[in-house]
Amino acid sequence: MTGKNISKLEKVISGGYCIGCGGCAVDDNNITIRDDIFGMPQAEIERNSFSDEICPFASTISEDEISDRLYKQNTSYDERIGRYISNYIGFVAEPGYRDSGSSGGMVSWVLAQLFLRGEIDGVIHVGTQRGSGYAYRVSETLDEIVENSKSRYYPVHYDEVLKSILGNGKKYAFVGVPCFVKSVRLLSLKNEDIAKSVKYCIAIFCGHMKTKAFSEMISMQQGISPSKLKSVDFRVKTKHLPASNYNNQVCYTESTGEERYCEPVPISDLYGLDWGLGYFKPRACDWCDDIAGETADLSCGDAWLPEVVNDPHGNNILITRNLLIDSIINDGIENGSLVLSSTNVEKVYESQAGNYRHRREGLSVRIADANKSKTWAPAKRTNASSFEVSARRQALYRHRGKISIRSHSAFIEAKNRNSFLFFMIKMLPYEIFYHFLNRRPIRGTVKTLYQYGQYAKRVFSASS
Ligand SMILES: Cc1cc2nc3c(=O)[nH]c(=O)nc-3n(C[C@H](O)[C@H](O)[C@H](O)COP(=O)(O)OP(=O)(O)OC[C@H]3O[C@@H](n4cnc5c(N)ncnc54)[C@H](O)[C@@H]3O)c2cc1C
Ligand code: SF4
Ligand code: SF4
User: Model's pTM, two decimal places?
Assistant: First the structure.
C-alpha cells in the first residue's frame, strides 16, 4: 500500500490519527478494529480501502457542512459550538437520573423521554462489558437505558453493535463523543439504512479520550494489578466535595472469582487525573476541534462554572439543535421534571475554556508544526494562522503532546516492572516542566507532591 494510491484513510491510520470509532469497519468488511499495544482500538485494513468519506479525520465534509445540512433552518450559529436552537444549564429533578448520572443526568432523561414517547425503540450507547471494561451496547428497555448512564473514560468502538441492528426495522438514538457522532452522520449520508435506523444522535462534550491504560493507572495506584481489574466507575458523586472533584471507584476480581470494590477516591488524591496534562491521550484528540458535538441533535456537558461547580450533585450544560428535543426539554421545565435555565454561548465556552484553548488555539500551533515538517495531517476548520499564540503557550501545547506520548510508553514499562512508582518517577520531570509552562510552578508541584504522598500512604497502609 504505497505510492499515489494510498487513501486518506490509510494516511489517518498510519499517521496515528485514528480514534478507533469503527465507522470505516461498518462501511467496509475488509476493516477490523483491534487494540494496539497501548490499549487503543485502531482500524486495521486488509486490502486497499477507500472508505475515506466515513472517517471523521479523512472526510472532506466538515462538522459545519454536516450541521448545515441538518439544522440550517431554525438555528443560530457560533463558530465555537456550531448551530444551536437554545443553550441551558441545570439538572434533572425527576428522581432516578441526576444521582445515577455523571453530571445532571440530562442525557439519560432525554433518552428516556424519546423512548417513552415512541420516538425510538432503543439506544446505542456505552455500558459495562462482560468480563471487564466498557463497550457499545444496545439498550431496549427503560431500565437498561438508565442503568447504562455515566461517562466511561474508556476507548470503545461501535461497528459491531451498529451492524447488529441494521435492517431490523427499529429506530435508535446514538450516544457518542463528537467524533463518533460525526462518523455516524457521515455513514448516514452514504447509507440510507443507517440514516433510517439512527433517528437521533446525542453527543457528550469531549476533552479527550483515554487509552485503556488510564483505567489501569487508576487501579495500579490503589494496589490492584491490571490483570485483576474489572472496571472503574469514573464518576462517583459525594455529598461533601465539589462536582469537579468527583471520585473514582475500582472494581476488581479476586483469584477466587469474587468481585470486590475499592473505597471511592477523590480525583484530587489520585495521580495523573489532571486532564490538562493529557496522560494517555490518543494523538487523534489533538487533531479534533469539535468540543461541543456540533453534528448532534443535543449536546450535553458538565457545567464547569463557578456558580454551580460546588454543587456535588452535578449540573449539565446543554445545546439543542433539534426542535422536538428542544420542545421535550421545555415540557420538562414546565412540569418540574427539569431545573434548567437558559444560558448563552459565552457560558458554554466558559464552562470548557481550557479545552477550547488547547483544541483550537493549540491546534493552530500543531498545524503550523505539521506544515513546517511537511507531515500529512487531517484537514481542519482551524488553520495555522487562526490565532496569535505566545511563545510560552506554543511551548505548553507542544509539551502536552510530549507528555501524552511519554505516558503511553512509560506505563508499559511500569506494568512490565509491576511498579507504579516507576511510572511516577518517569513522568515527574514532564509534570514539573508542565507546571512551569502553565505558570503554576509552585502550586502545580505541590499538587503533584501531594499525590505522591497519597500514593505512599496507600502503599504504607496496605503493607501494615
Ligand atoms: C471521554 C470523555 C470525555 C469527556 N470530556 C468532557 C469534557 O471535557 N467536558 C465536559 O463538559 N464533558 C465531558 N464529557 C461528558 C461528561 O462527562 C458527561 O458525560 C456529560 O456531561 C453528560 O452527563 P449526563 O449526566 O447528562 O449523562 P448521563 O445521564 O450520565 O449519561 C451518559 C450517557 O453517555 C454514554 N456514554 C458514557 N461513556 C461513553 C463513551 N465513552 N462514549 C459514548 N457514550 C458514552 C452512557 O452510556 C450514557 O448513555 C466527557 C465524556 C467522555 C466519555
Ligand atoms: S477514526 Fe474511525 S473511521 Fe477513521 S480510520 Fe479510525 S476507526 Fe476508521
Ligand atoms: S477529543 Fe475529539 S477525537 Fe478525541 S475522542 Fe473527543 S471527540 Fe473524539
Answer: 0.97
